Every structure is written in C-alpha cells, then in structure tokens.
Amino acid sequence: MNILFICSRNKWRSLTAEHLFKESTLHNVRSAGTAASARIKVSEKLIEWADLIFVMEKRHRDQLRERSPILISNKDLVVLNIPDEYQYMDEELIEIIISSVAPYISFE
C-alpha cells in the first residue's frame, strides 16, 4: 500500500511520519506539504500514487479538496488532528503519530 502523509511545510509532522515508517516492508511511505514553502509540495502525481492519505489537520484535507477534488474523491483520506506544535522527531509527536495511524494500518 502507498501511504502519503501531509502537513503544511513537510518539515516536522509529515516528515517525522515518513521517517518513522519508511523502512516498512508492508507499505511505501512518502510525505509532502500544502504550503508554497513546503520542502516537498503535494502534487497530483503524489495524490495519484497514494492509496491512503493521512493529513495532520482538517485544513489540509480542505486544501486538497479545493485543489484536486476529483483525485481526492476516490482516495481514503484520514484527518489525524495533530496540531503544528511539535519539532521534527519530537518524542510526543512520534507517540501521537503511531497511536493515530494504528487503527488504519499496521507497520513492521
């Protein structure tokens, strides 16, 4: 399964999630951001690639729906409700990400 994590700038939350799960033998994982200043900007190509998309906040989901409504309409998209309060690989952020995605997927 191809999994895409999205936050605003792809520097802290979504990048942390990508790095947590990038060694999985069960899934392919990437991350991106919605902001113009994002390290890697979310693109139609990334959305097409993804089977499952996790966004950190509702506003990220809303931005995807505005930009690519047709592509998003047939994707599994989950809002994790993780606020932009954490630094890259923050221990609390790691715990929140793991517990938030656990109901949806398993990782090795």
TrEMBL record:
Domain of life the protein comes from: Bacteria
Annotated protein name in UniProt: Protein tyrosine phosphatase
UniProt xrefs under InterPro entries: Ptyr_pPase_sf, UCP029416_PTP
